Amino acid sequence: MAFDLPKLPYAYDALEPHIDARTMEIHHTKHHNGYTTKLNSAIEGTDLASKSIDDILKNLDMSNTAVRNNGGGFYNHSLFWEIMSPSGGGEPSGALADAINSAFGSFEGFKDKFSSAAGSRFGSGWAWLCVHKGGKVEICSTPNQDNPIMPDTGCGGQPILGLDVWEHAYYLNYQNKRPEYIEAFFNVINWEKVSELYKANK
């Protein structure tokens, strides 16, 4: 199957002032679209062409850099758009809040650790909140377009929240001030969607 570029569930300017419209448009139509096109080219005519993106990445030969980079880019951004919302921000509730409090002591403890994972990732990459079977949550980060469902990335579990810390995700608005971008991200997190993903994967 060929993969399609997902439509955004909101307008390009919907996350302003936290993430600007021009960055969103370039990020979606250029970067994510590029990963989608190159992934389709990389799997065309192979046994991967009939598989879901989850199956491709969970069983990935990590030396296949075309599928690793572009499959990761496709998957990561597809999740990224979903877990943001113009009406986002605040804190999680219910089972997800309980899991976060259990793992990190408090929401502020989670926020500090997640911000550290995103801020300390050298170069390009992602910060993740993942859930393991049984409901325990974990924070980790990966380089480039790697993600926790790939083999041997040093992360584990199913990603339910991800933050893109490639410079293309924030440079137009924040330049080299990654910490300000990370702080702004908390104002657009769609905790309802993250909670939905937590319940589906715990």
SSE inventory with pairings:
Elements: H1 21-43, H2 53-58, H3 65-82, H4 94-104, H5 107-120, E1 125-131, E2 137-143, E3 158-164, H6 171-174, H7 178-185, H8 191-201
Antiparallel strand pairs: 1-2, 1-3
Number of strands: 3
Averaging pLDDT over every residue, what do you get?
96
Query: How many helical elements?
Result: 8
Quaternary form = single chain
User: Reading side by side through the largest sheet, how are the strands ordered?
Assistant: 2-1-3
Distance between the terminal alpha carbons, to the nearest Å? 28 Å
Our Rg estimate from Cα atoms comes to 16 Å
Which structural class should the secondary elements be placed in? Answer: mainly alpha
Helix content: 40-55%
* Strand-residue proportion: 5-15%
Flag low-confidence runs: none
The helix-strand sequence is: HHHHHEEEHHH
Biggest sheet record:
3 strands, antiparallel
| Anisotropy-based shape | globular
Outline of the structure:
The chain is mostly helical and 202 residues long.
